[in-house]
Structures are given as C-alpha cells and as structure tokens.
Write a structure and sequence with these properties.
394 residues, binds (2S)-2-hydroxybutanedioic acid, two-stranded parallel ribbon, Aspartate Aminotransferase, domain 1, 46% helix, single chain, alpha/beta
Amino acid sequence: MLENLKPAPPDKILALMAQYREDPRENKLDLGVGVYKDEKGDTPIMRAIRVAEERLHEEQTTKSYVSVQGDKEFCQAMGEIVLGDAVPADRLRVCQTAGGSGALSVIALMLNRARVGATIWLSDPTWPNHLPLLSGAGLKPQSYPYYDSETGQIRFEAMLGSLRTAMAGDILLLHGCCHNPTGADLSLEQWQIIADLCKERGLLPFVDFAYLGFGDGLEKDAAGLRLLASQVPELVIAASCSKNFAVYRDRVGAALLVAANAGEADIGLSQLLSVTRSVYSMPPDHGAALVRMVLTDPQLRADWMAELEGMRQRMESLRRDFADALRRASNSSRFDFIANQKGMFSRLGLSPEQIDTLREEHGIYIVGDSRINIAGLPGDKLDELARAIVATST
Ligand code: LMR
C-alpha cells in the first residue's frame, strides 16, 4: 500500500532548518525558524521555568495520566492570561493541547464536526502550516488580502472588501498579535471593525495566539483579541506557550472556546475532548505543569514577566537598529517599516533568487517568502548584514 504514496511537499520552514544544520560554514546566520534567541544566539530555558522544573522534579510522585482536558489549573491560568475578564467564566472552556499547533488542529477538527467542510478565511500571507493543517481537518481555505509588501502596511480596505463576501457560518482566522510572517498587526480600531463585521455577517472568529508578550507586552498584545471576545457570541482561540515560556519542545498550548451560553460551552468542550481523545488521547503534561507552576506562584510569575519583557524589548530595539542600518546601507527609507512592525517576524520583500544568493554567498538563511526572525539578528553586525542585503537586492 505504501508504494501508492507520493512524496509530501516540504514545509519551507522545516526544510530551511535542515539546510542550515547541514551548512558547515562557521559564520552562517539563521534568520529562519521562529525561535527566540539571545545576544549570544542561544535559546535559553527561562529562569522561572528552570526553578519550576527543579520543583517538579522534587514534588512529582507519578507519571500517570492527568486527563484528556489536561491540568485544570493550567487551563484556568491560560484563560486568564489570554482573555482576562473579557468574557464571563460560564461561557469559556479551556483544554490543554500539544502546543499551539495541537490547539489549531483539535479546534479545526471540532469545527469540521459542527459544519462539515466549512470555509475558513486565511490572511494572505499566513504561517505556511495553516493551510495543510486546516485543510487536513476538512475545512476549506479561502484567502483574504492582508499585507502590502510595497508599503509594509496592512491592506485593511481590501481585507474588508474580501470578507464582506464571506457567508454566515464561515470561519475567520486572525493572528492575535505579532502576525506571522509580516509583523503587521491590526490596530484596536481595526479589531473593532472586524468584531462588527463578524457580528453582521455571522462569521466565527478563530484566533491564532502564538506570540503573546512579544509585541507590545502581555496586556496590550491581548487587547484586540479581548475586545473581539467581549462582543461576539462565539469565538475559538489556539494559544501557544512555545515562545513566551520558551518551552518549544515540551509542546504546551491551549484551545479556548467561548460559546453563546454555558450549555453550548459544555457541548463544545465535550467535542474538543472527544477530538483530542481520538487524535492523541491525552496532552503531554510536563511543560504545562511548569507553565502552571510559573503562572500560579507570584514570585515565579513576576520573574517570568520580567524576563519576557526583556526579550520583547530586545526584539524591539533590534528592529530599530536594523531599520537604521538598512537606511544607512540603502540610503533610503525602503526598510523603515521594520521598526514599526511587531514581534518576531518581518518580511524584507526580497525575491526567491535574492534569498538564494544571500544563503549561497553569505550563509544568511531567510525563509523563501523573505521572512526574517528578528531575534536572530546579530546586534554587533547589523551594518555588515544590511550591506549584504542591500547589495543583493539592488
Ligand atoms: C515559525 O513560524 O517559524 C514557528 O512558528 C515555528 C514553526 O513551527 O513553523
């Protein structure tokens, strides 16, 4: 039977990671996969997570199953950091998942049970894994215009124009903050217009929330999503702890479901758990236990918030310094948008050939759509990098 299979198309981010690993050059530079890096280029374990890990090692007496829903205290803490008090508790249900992608998957499969083959609207561009993940769950992807590469701005009117053709019952996928791959985020006014549009047209918002804390800070990054949540009757959210707790390989995330009333919320949760049971049975516990310990211990929580804020500020200042270096190298304002965008990613607007040249001639690894990981920028070599980029792109 297996001889019937054709090779799967490669994921461009994973393919680039593999290519980078195999490159023997010492001065190579990884601006590919979305993993936070410090000034030494390392991705350290966060201090609070390290302490929690030691405590867990001392305190844990069993590795027996927790439950399909996961750790209840973790779920409650995730509901709080994501939604604050934007929705009444009786309408909210939370389920622990295997990373943010696990949350996207179980929610998509659950939605496909609610409406088989429902249309899901994705921003153009979006994270490359959205398409296979959501269509694999049975949903039908459609795209809406989002980003203008020429100006580095959101094409908001075009986005609205496209979404006004959506039908009641369609799903609208939004990036909660730090849009991946563009770093171009909706303003609060735009979130309000989207909330009105969802209500008018009967669209279900589905928010991918993978970078909370990486844009303008924990509260501000959640403000648009909370505004939306406080106004629409229903909403689903895939939250990830991979980046903001730096627990990538431990696979920690949560699926959040806000329903019109408590009864529908219970039914929705029962479907989410039934999907989880049928896909991977139970979520992994280790990383979620660490996140739960950090969020529920005031000291650990304060230290985590301080470290996260330091990471955020580092990315923000790298953005400014890199935009300045590109301005010097290009003698133009062509790349100024980088300073104003949010989070881990921006797109340089280079062609695939130019990206190949940067990799082959300079060992600079950039995703094929010209997305760079801001945290990977070498703070002490920005001028050199900017000159290589400008020389390649003119
Ligand atoms: C990214 O966009 O680079 C990250 O979300 C990592 C991934 O799994 O693609």
